[in-house]
Amino acid sequence: MEIIAADKLKKLYANGQGIQSLSFKAGKGEFIGVLGFSGAGKTTLMRLLCGAIFPTGGSLQVMGQNMLAVTRPELARLRRQMTTVYQNFNVVPTLSVAQNVYLGKIGDTSIFSTLKNLLWLSPAEAGKIARLLSLLGIEDKFNERCQELSGGQQQRVAVARALYSEAELILADEPIASVDPATASLILNLFLEVKNNGKTVIMNLHQITNAVQYCTRLLVLEKGQLAYDGPPQLFLASAVYARLSGEKATGVKGEGVYA
């Protein structure tokens, strides 16, 4: 099943940065890592995929929705099928950790049910949230307000909220930027489990090692264009890897699209 289809996608800013011309497709159950130097277009791509900004050229289909002609009600419906983990966490500081995680399903319930659960979580929902927090090592923060947490702990809350949503498409913009290596591995393994359950994950990463170890496919952006699209191991043999890492390519050959 095709989840994303981009063809000559373009989004340019006044400074000339952004997405120049990008074509790729993503299917159900993929875990795609997006790599590239700062300014390569990674965050712009994420914002295009979630409908925070809109293309200035080309075409983009997200779960069958044309993002160049999407209406506000259509965008609202689409966003109920996806979730996004941002670099700045986007937690509500004055709400508890459990309440913030519950907001992952805010689009699936009525306003009355949402307010009721924010005031008093049902035992079933509380149990689901507690299990997620336990997996992320912050089960003891269940009732704490997010404003009392460290940056790394808030990032774990954001990840728990995304996993709790059970969305078909998860977009993650540097979800391990504020956590220690052990927690980073824990988070990436959870996303890998989500992928194995048939969900699609697209994640911006800075760390090549993590991208190669956990992702099933890599997209590498250079100056708003696609420089590589293929398996992680073949990326290590490409000139793109050498440019991005400053290291010599492995010399392993195989199929892949790279320059």
Notes on the structure:
- This protein is α/β, with parallel strands linked by helices and 259 residues long.
- The protein is 36% helix and 24% strand.
- It contains 10 helices and 11 strands.
- The strands form 2 sheets. It has a 7-stranded mixed β-sheet, with helices on both faces. A 4-stranded antiparallel β-sheet has the order 2-1-4-5, covered by helices on one side.
- Helix 5 (123-135) packs across helix 6.
- The radius of gyration is 19 Å and the shape is globular.
Mean pLDDT: 90
User: Can you give the helix content as a percent range?
Assistant: 25-40%
Question: Which strand-content bin applies to the residues?
Answer: 15-25%
What is the SS-derived class?
alpha/beta
Q: pLDDT under 50 segments (min length 5)?
A: 252-259
Query: Spatial order of the strands in the main sheet?
Result: 6-7-8-3-9-10-11
In a few lines, what is going on in this structure?
This protein is of the alpha/beta class and 259 residues long. Helix content is 36%, strand content 24%.
Keywords, please?
disordered C terminus, alpha/beta, 259 residues, 4-stranded antiparallel β-sheet, 7-stranded mixed β-sheet, 11 strands
Outline the fold blueprint.
Blueprint: E1 2-12, E2 18-27, E3 31-35, H1 42-50, E4 57-62, E5 65-66, H2 72-79, E6 82-85, H3 97-102, H4 111-119, H5 123-135, H6 151-165, E7 169-173, H7 181-196, E8 200-204, H8 208-214, E9 217-222, E10 225-230, H9 232-235, H10 239-245, E11 257-258
Parallel strand pairs: 3-8, 3-9, 6-7, 7-8
Antiparallel strand pairs: 1-2, 1-4, 4-5, 9-10, 10-11
Helix pairs in contact: 5-6
